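Dear colleague,

Thank you for sharing your sequence with our group. We've completed the structure prediction you requested, and as agreed, I am returning the results in plain text so they can be pasted directly into your records. Please verify that the sequence below matches your submission; if there's any discrepancy, let me know and we will rerun it promptly.
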Amino acid sequence: MTANNDTYIASVKAAAATSRIAASQNIMAAQETLAASRDVVGYREGFPTGNATYVTACQTATTNLQIARANAEMAKQSAIMVAADLIRSKGELPT
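Please find the predicted structure tokens below.
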């Protein structure tokens, strides 16, 4: 294997690792949002505005998690494409 192939393999592995780390951070952020809706913001069962606060926090956390997952996947795919372009430009990867 050439140095370019080694670079490609390292880039793909790094992109996958970065994506996994981002996924963990995104899940923790969503959980923190839900926890804050209970503890900090003041969700209280049976209290009229408390439930609305909790529902809004759940929707926000879910939306933000979906956006963060999409961004992490786009960054991963971009890193892989750049690495593939390197070896393709050197004629080491079929088009």
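Summary note from our side: The chain has one domain: 3-89.

Kind regards,
the structure core
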